[in-house]
Amino acid sequence: MNEVKQKILVAGTGPAGMAAALALAKMGRKVFLVGPGPNIQDKRTTALMRPALDFLGRLGLAEQIDRVAAPLRTMRIIDATQRLIRSPVVTFHAAEIGQEAFGLNIPNAELNATLAGIVRQCPEITWHDSLVAHWDLTADHAEAQLADGTVLRASLAVAADGRNSPARAAAGITVTTRKLPQSALVLNFAHARHHGFSSTEFHTEYGPCTQVPLPGGFRSSLVWVTRPNHANELAALDDDTLSRRIEERQQSFLGKATVEPNRQVFPLSTAMPARFASRRVALVGEAAHVFPPITAQGLNLSLRDVMDLAQVASAYASDPGATEPLRHYDARRRPDVLARSSAVNLVNASLLSDLLPAQLARSAGLGLLGSLPHLRGFFMREGMYPGSGFAALLPDFLRPSRELLP
Ligand SMILES: Cc1cc2nc3c(=O)[nH]c(=O)nc-3n(C[C@H](O)[C@H](O)[C@H](O)COP(=O)(O)OP(=O)(O)OC[C@H]3O[C@@H](n4cnc5c(N)ncnc54)[C@H](O)[C@@H]3O)c2cc1C
Questions:
Q1: What is the rounded distance in angstroms from the CA atom of residue 148 to the CA atom of residue 128?
Q2: Closest alpha carbon to 268 in 338, 177, 334, 340
């Protein structure tokens, strides 16, 4: 068989790119991975749900992740707006759906370092510490010229090269982007009271201020979505003042807060490509979808991109970058990406909207969630295993077995 057809090139060494390289290599593919060394300066944490963790476990990360992550046992939404119509507090317990935890909160630096360590030990992967400078995409193959002069040729190019994806542009895939009137301030902080492995979102008129537990009980990460000016002002405060602001914003529910060094501000935007694959390029991660960091969906969705891509590449082993497998991949990813992106954007829009009907709808929706255990169970299952909320509503004889769920 043509040797090029056996090769896959992954552009981008964020978590999506490294996971894609590993998943494809595990299926016996020769993989070129192109991008800089892992980002271990990233101070964010990522909440990953059970299916994403199971997938990373199969890639060999389970032990290292368990060592550095905190379980998410409870999630709470508190309406902290000053609006006329406010929603009741809604609390989701993993135990309600028979789970010990919804997932784990993992420091990005540790996740990236762990992925990179396993990638470097994988004999099927050749890591080129460079950038793709130019793409040449033909009907027969994808060719990448790297900044260091290397030329690589493969059947399939995986665009894991982030929100501005040069590979996506080279494939002629158009993208609809929207800058949001919000930025996220991200930091870690210590607190006087034990977090009980709960995550709490305080919803404000400008976005949620979300605390997510870190290991040990008395430290958490914070993602405070607010107006860009406000995020920058907060980030510029001295430690004591910022700590007080965080404690006030969170209504002192964790007691005295003490911020740790390093603050990051991320301007927020959305992006949706017209398609998820074309001309020997398949999109994964933020090349395929960008939305605000609300309800912790981004990397969970990216890992589902990778799982689907690995399955399609395996089904079309003789030439995974040909037109038919790419059409198949596009069809598989479209409903999941559209559903998740729309849901997150809708939640965000309902927070920002001053319109009374939007506030009423939000309040009524959260009110129902708070009072109806079955509805809460449905949303919790859907959040963890897409499709399983619907499955749980079916009578037993129509219910797919657990193995069929993602
Ligand atoms: C504040 C914040 C909090 C978040 N929290 C969560 C959460 O709790 N749960 C969750 O699931 N998601 C979360 N997300 C989303 C998650 O962080 C992203 O989905 C994820 O980081 C995207 O990873 P990626 O690998 O697609 O992109 P990136 O991490 O951006 O990686 C892109 C890579 O491409 C490389 N690259 C660029 N150009 C080239 C080129 N020409 N050649 C080769 N390589 C190139 C870059 O160097 C980089 O290595 C959060 C996001 C934000 C902003």
A1: 9
A2: 177
Q: What is the pLDDT of residue 224?
A: 97
Hey, whose CA ends up nearest to atom 9 of ligand 1? 296
The answer to whether residue 374 sits within a structural domain is no
CA of 162 to the centre of ligand 1 (A): 6
Classify residue 47 by burial, with Cβ atoms within 10 Å: 0-12, 13-18, 19+: buried
Beta bridge partners of 177: 271
Rounded distance, CA 79 to CA 188, Å?
22
Q: State which residues form the domain around 276.
A: 4-62+108-176+271-346
Would residue 113 count as lying in a domain?
A: yes
Give which of 99, 132, 109, 105 is closest to 215, Cα–Cα: 105
pTM of the model: 0.90
Residue 392 lies in a domain: no
For residue 285, how far is its CA from the centre of ligand 1 (angstroms)? Answer: 7
Distances in whole angstroms, Cα of residue 119 to Cα of each of 23, 57, 235, 252, 322: 10, 14, 35, 43, 26
226 part of a folded domain: no
CATH of the domain at 294: 3.50.50.60
CA of 244 to the centre of ligand 1 (A): 31
* Distance of alpha carbon 197 from alpha carbon 199, whole angstroms: 7
Ligand 1 neighbours by CB, cut-off 6 Å: 11-17, 34-36, 44, 46-47, 131-132, 160-162, 166, 184, 186, 223, 266, 285-286, 293, 296-300, 302
pLDDT in tens, 99-142: 899 999 999 999 999 999 999 999 999 999 999 999 999 999 99
Ligand 1 mutation target, pool 75, 161, 297, most atoms within 8 A of CB: 161
pLDDT tens digits, one per residue of 205-234: 899 999 999 999 999 999 999 999 999 999
354 — pLDDT class (breaks 50, 70, 90): low
Number of structural domains (the chain) is 1
